[in-house]
Amino acid sequence: MDQSEDFFNYFRPYFSTMDPIGKAIYHYYFNQDIEKLSVESNYTEGEEIDPAYFFRRFDEMPEIEKTALRLCRGKVLDVGAGAGCHSLELFNRGFSVVSIEKSELAAEVLKQRGACQVFVGDIYKYTDNQFDTILLLMNGAGIAGTLKGMKKLLKHLKNLLKPDGQILLDSADIRYLFYEEDGSYWIDITNIGYYGEMIYTVTYKNSITSIFPWLYIDFERLKKTASGQGLHTELIARGEDDTYLVRLTKSNIH
After folding, report:
1. d(Cα 29, Cα 101) in Å, to the nearest integer?
2. Which residues have C-beta within 8 Å of that of residue 73, sequence separation ≥ 6?
3. Cβ atoms within 10 A of the Cβ of 84, count?
4. Angle between helices 219-228 and 147-159 in degrees, nearest 10
5. CA 36 to CA 49: how far, in whole Å?
6. pTM exceeds cut of 0.70
């Protein structure tokens, strides 16, 4: 067992299913409750997320997300759909979209907002169809949790992909978080496992807290991981804070 596995196994008993994000989405939509989520990680602290962010319009999205939506084609699977900002934008453009959302509360909002095909549950439990486009945005790589989890995720997504289909996924290289002004690192990132494997704590209304692993993966490591699963990686765009968008396709079509 490597160092990162030890780290995540230590925190695993504290992972919860209290669903603060789903509750914030639900209360914002049905009750106009604007209370923000509090977000901390093993590397950062003191951030807040406005629940309105999960309801943003196309013109409010980062350019990477706009680019991904423009590249969608055919039947689309939106993984981690949240409140549906991507699913509903595509649906309104005439796409057939299946929205996957683990949170039952967020899924209820999806349905109320007009998403017609909503699967409530974990992505690994979905095996019903194959798609022309699989979409994972808002650091879509994050749901993998760890590098090992990334291999599992890509293997599963490949099975959901049509022979000429595409996976559109974004992530970021977060090593910039560790830079000092003189160019050195404030922590030895070579001695902490993989620096992109993070533990997030999200709290809503000071009492509803969830702890979960979240992955930020640098481009070269993603490319190597995808290749190991028989997927070709194409860099589509780069954004702020070392974010990037890739297209993954089955290697046998190249």
Report:
1. 16
2. 132, 133, 166
3. 27
4. 50
5. 6
6. yes
Largest CA-CA distance found in the chain, in angstroms, rounded: 52
Residues 24-65 pLDDT 10s: 999 999 999 999 999 998 877 779 999 999 999 999 999 999
Residue with tokens 């993998």: 144
Is 53 within 8 Å of 25 (Cβ atoms)?
no
Express each pLDDT in 75-109 by its tens digit. Answer: 999 999 999 999 999 999 999 999 999 999 999 99
Q: Specify the DSSP class assigned to residue 36.
A: P
Rounded to the nearest 10 degrees, what angle do helices 63-71 and 85-92 cross at? 40
Going by the DSSP 8-state scheme, the letter that residue 114 receives in this structure is T
Residue of 14, 26, 17 lying closest to 51 (CA atoms): 26
Q: Are 20 and 37 in contact (CB under 8 A)?
A: yes
Which amino acid, residue 10? Y
Entry field: residues in the chain: 254
Is the Cβ–Cβ distance between 203 and 209 less than 8 Å?
Answer: yes
Q: Measure the CA angle with vertex 45, ends 145 and 26; round to 5°.
A: 65
Tell me if residue 126 falls in helix, strand or coil: coil
Residue type, 209: T
Question: CB within 8 A of 248, min separation 6: which ones?
Answer: 154, 157, 166, 167, 169, 226, 231, 232, 233, 234
Q: Which of 254, 243, 248 is nearest to 63 (CA)?
A: 243
Q: How far is CA 43 from the centre of its chain?
A: 18
